[in-house]
Design a protein that fits this description.
504 residues; mainly alpha; Glycosyltransferase; two-stranded antiparallel sheet
Length: 504
């Protein structure tokens, strides 16, 4: 799938990155012998979301160099669109990647709640999620209206300035019955449904509000179908929905089934599985645009739990049994395809490329998003296999079985690569202007940044593990919220595992 297109001067990296160089050493078997402070990485990743906040900042804001911004968002349209997140280094609030970010933060919170709590970061995770969900509730002004974007990339990228000093357009764009956006609406429904489960104990009323909006949005996205970037041309050049809306609608249905327990949502996911591609797409990436691998793993969770035997036949298309070589090509859409591709065990069905340094490599632009999402799905699926009581807990790949520990090992290797276990010895987790003055004074300046976006994960190196740390190298140096979101849970999980090992 294509990623968003940007012109040479289209980046407004309001926070260029200070990367930490670390030693790179290898141990037996090619594994990197480098201890990492996963708790510190978790703490930093949550600071990053505070740095990306738009709106009126709270008194407990920890990133002190960030100030209030976008306080008149929605004013021209007569709606309150203050709040939410900037997606990356620019000052536009793009709804699709923002919603995916919140979905992944919520999934992290659900899967790794104990680890996050033990690391002392549960309150900050809730705050990061709620900053997004509060905005989505505001943006859903009517049952069949969702405000999709504030600002536009073309005018925003003309300037390189802090969001606190914005002088560019804050035009807002919406999807509605006449201008549908099922992909955006579906992802927002998924985010709200997932978040509702996170808040169920601590704030049941808020959880119910989120679920109410999620169900309304799902109905909206299903009843009025269409791609949001066909309705909002301003979004096309930056976050085009290349995969269409089928994956987001199925994704939302499965999240709503998990949140509500209503059979109707699982019925929908099963009935629409073929038409929307859930059981017919072979995927080797998981991203803000392409949700198939994630929704297939959610579907396999239902099958592994064995709670709905009546759906076994269809759900097994999401998760087929062990396949021989002759039948392998008949099953192209399944969770195993993605996971086995990451493990390099997919045979002639196709694998994810790896660099010499061991990084999963999907494409040149912001490859790190695929790395962090893969680490998350590998870890989560290994837990599902183990909790299902399967002995031994193995994934059946075309090139042979893979034990759950193998999935976890690859996930940890990708995480450690991000943190510094790579040939460049660089941590890609960061540990920073009026309008054109941003270019004149900072863009090409070689000096240090006055502010550092701690916890941001940059685009990362190329297929040869090469990384050029320059502001104008936005393919590699721009950080995005959806790069860091899946790592919140992984950092917490690995910290918990490390703590257990130290005690033993």
């Amino acid at each position: 799938m294509a990623t968003r297109i940007k012109m040479l001067l289209s980046l407004a990296i309001c926070a260029v990155l200070a990367l930490v160089h670390l030693p790179f050493t290898t141990a037996g078997g090619g594994e990197v012998a480098a201890p990492f402070e996963y708790k510190k990485a978790l703490h930093s990743s949550l600071l990053y979301f505070e740095a990306q906040r738009s709106g009126r900042l709270p008194h407990n804001q920890r990133v002190k160099w960030r100030g209030h911004s976008g306080l008149a968002d929605g004013l021209q349209q007569g709606v309150d669109l203050v709040g939410g997140y900037y997606d990356a280094g620019d000052n536009v609030k793009f709804g699709l990647p923002m919603a995916f970010t919140v979905t992944m933060l919520s999934w992290s919170a659900m899967e790794f709640a104990d680890d996050i709590t033990a690391a002392g970061e549960w309150r900050h995770v809730l705050e990061a999620i709620k900053w997004g969900t509060d905005y989505f509730v505001k943006a859903h002004t009517e049952p069949y209206v969702l405000w999709a974007e504030v600002g536009d990339g073309d005018t925003d990228h003309y300037c390189w300035q802090r969001p606190e000093d914005m002088t560019t357009s804050r035009q807002a764009y919406k999807v509605d019955r006449d201008n549908p956006g099922s992909d955006l609406v579906g992802e927002t429904a998924a985010a709200l449904a997932a978040a509702s489960m996170v808040f169920r104990r601590s704030n049941p009323h808020y959880a119910q509000v989120l679920l109410h909006h999620a169900e309304q949005l799902f109905e909206f996205g299903d009843k009025y179908r269409g791609k949001y970037d066909s309705s909002i041309g301003e979004a096309y050049s930056y976050y085009a929905s290349v995969s269409g809306y089928g994956d987001e609608i199925l994704w939302a249905a499965l999240w709503l089934h998990r949140a509500t327990g209503k059979a109707s949502y699982l019925d929908y996911a099963v009935d629409m599985a073929d038409e929307f591609g859930g059981t017919t797409w072979a995927i080797t990436e998981f991203s803000w645009d392409v949700k198939y691998a994630g929704l297939q793993i959610l579907a396999t969770k239902v099958l592994l739990e064995g709670k709905h035997p009546e759906y076994k036949a269809t759900l097994e298309k999401y998760l087929p049994a062990c396949l021989n070589k002759e039948r392998r090509r008949l099953f192209v859409a399944k969770a195993e395809h993605y996971l086995c591709a990451c493990l390099n065990k997919n045979g002639d069905a196709g694998n994810v490329n790896r660099t010499a340094g061991g990084m999963l490599f999907v494409r040149q632009w912001n490859n790190m998003q695929y790395v962090t999402n893969a680490a998350f799905l590998l870890t989560v699926y290994s837990r599902y296999l183990t909790s299902a009581g399967q002995e031994p807990p193995v994934l059946q790949c075309p090139d042979g079985p893979a034990h759950a520990d193998e999935l976890r090992s690859l996930a940890r290797a990708q995480t450690d690569y991000v943190l510094g276990a790579n040939p460049a010895g660089v941590s890609y987790l960061v540990g920073f202007i009026g309008c054109m003055q941003g270019y004149d004074n900072w863009f090409l300046r070689r000096g240090a940044n006055p502010n550092v976006v701690i916890g941001a994960i940059v685009g990362g190196p190329d297929h040869l593990d090469r990384f050029r740390d320059r502001r104008d190298n936005y393919m590699q140096t721009e950080a995005c919220t959806y790069n860091t979101a899946p790592m919140v849970g992984i950092f917490a999980h690995l910290h918990g595992k490390t703590a257990i090992m130290k005690k033993s």
